[in-house]
Specification:
The complex is a heterodimer of chains A (about 120) and B (about 110).
Chain A: E1 5-7, E2 10-13, E3 19-24, E4 31-38, E5 42-50, E6 53-57, E7 64-68, E8 74-78, E9 87-94, E10 105-106, E11 110-114
Parallel strand pairs in A: 2-11
Antiparallel strand pairs in A: 1-3, 3-8, 4-5, 4-9, 5-6, 7-8, 9-10, 9-11
Chain B: E1 5-7, E2 10-14, E3 19-24, E4 32-38, E5 45-51, E6 56-59, E7 62-67, E8 72-77, E9 86-93, E10 99-101, E11 105-110
Parallel strand pairs in B: 2-11
Antiparallel strand pairs in B: 1-3, 3-8, 4-5, 4-9, 6-7, 7-8, 9-10, 9-11
The chains are: A mainly beta (about 120), B mainly beta (about 110).
Chain lengths: ~120, ~110
């Protein structure tokens, strides 16, 4: 099976702009979670989508939003970018078949630089 | 919410020695504890995981132990090799599939 893919891999934006990142999960996986990774903070949970519904949300401002499509692909949007949004954004997919926590497989990430 | 603490933040060992990384968690409802290895510029890769109904799990040179009472779990790597050098993350997940990660341990294996 193909792994989790993310596009684009690199992005440079300026403050105030918005950005949309895309994640395609492993075939058959219906859960997609998004994380922000920064050197000092590790992996911070943003949100999880399962069957097109947001199931969990981390402690990020409303500028961070997402959605999931019927084919399980997910997008994450950040509006009004700030310098502190510069980070590696990772998505992870899992099957969620059993209903409880299951192994998450990560994509390669999108590295966002805000100038 | 859940709080996962990971120690140490950096660890250097001689090749062939053992390495131990420890994590604590706060939410007694957490029931799944994976460990990820992230090499420089690459995605995190699952190396081992354990569920709350098991106390220990081994996979060749890697083992994880879980103490539910004390709410801590540890990663043990024996006979370390230079290719074990990476950043290791622990995580805890509740039944709702929400994962909380530790801040990572940078492991360096000195040849």
């Amino acid at each position: 099976k193909a792994g989790v893919t993310q596009t684009p891999r690199y992005l440079i934006k300026t403050r105030g702009q918005q950005v949309t990142l895309s994640c395609s999960p492993i075939s058959g996986h219906r859960s997609v979670s998004w994380y922000q990774q920064t050197p000092g903070q590790g992996l911070q949970f943003l949100f999880e989508y399962f069957s097109e519904t947001q199931r969990n949300k981390g402690n990020f401002p409303g500028r961070f939003s997402g959605r999931q499509f019927s084919n399980s692909r997910s997008e994450m949007n950040v509006s009004t970018l700030e310098l502190g949004d510069s980070a590696l954004y990772l998505c992870a997919s899992s099957s969620r078949l059993a209903g409880g926590p299951e192994t998450q497989y990560f994509g390669p990430g999108t590295r966002l630089l805000v100038l | 919410g859940e709080n996962v603490e990971q120690h140490p933040s950096t660890l250097s060992v001689q090749e062939g020695d053992s390495a131990v990384i420890k994590c604590t968690y706060s939410d007694s409802a957490s029931n799944y504890f994976p460990w990820y290895k992230q090499e420089l510029g690459k995605r995190p890769q699952l190396i081992i995981d354990i569920r709350s109904n098991v106390g220990e799990k081994k996979d060749q040179r890697i083992a994880v132990t879980l103490n539910k009472t004390a709410k801590h779990f540890s990663l043990h790597i024996t006979e370390t090799q230079p290719e074990d050098s990476a950043v290791y993350f622990c995580a805890a997940s509740n039944p709702g599939n929400q994962f909380y990660f530790g801040t990572g341990t940078s492991l360096t294996v000195i040849p």
